[in-house]
Design goal:
Elements (H helix, E strand, L loop, with lengths): L2 E6 L9 E6 L8 H10 L1 H12 L11 E5 L8 E6 L10 H17 L4 E4 L11 H17 L6 E6 L2 H14 L3
Parallel strand pairs: 1-6, 2-4, 2-5, 5-6
Antiparallel strand pairs: 3-4
Helix pairs in contact: 3-4, 4-5
Amino acid sequence: MGKIEIVEGDITREKVDVIVNAANSSLLGGGGVDGAIHRAAGPELLAECRDLRSSTLPDGLPPGDAIATGAYEIKKVKWIVHTVGPNRHAGQTDPQDLARCFSNSLHLARSLSARSIAIPAIGAGVYGWDHETVADLAIRAALAEQRERGGIDRIRFVLFSKDAAAIWSQAKLTHLGR
């Protein structure tokens, strides 16, 4: 079985095959992780996302779905997988939609032959999901991915604070029975 890691840090500085963007449905950038990834990747990412919006995603990316783009100026990364978490403040309260963000991102990364991935706390923060719920769903998805033949070797959850990393580390220990 591969490694599941919990770290505090900046996802744009990870050296992995894929980073996951906690995007908004427009795919055109925003705040938090989304804004940081767009700034780090440069204007080519915005151009590719605009092309996606004008062709295959005219209504935006629905919550739980995932789509891949190039990583452009983020040189240590091959792809960016964008996913949209459900917004609890907007009445999107089904945890299965949030779980799909993680499972769909992992499946898409595997289809790209990724061996390593960095994932943020999708849905935590401005979308109103608590870290305990997000961590539980994310760790479950990671463990399921690693049980798959040819699954991703290294899954890193990159959190923005020590407190968040501590919650996620506890969730990992709980799922691993330690």
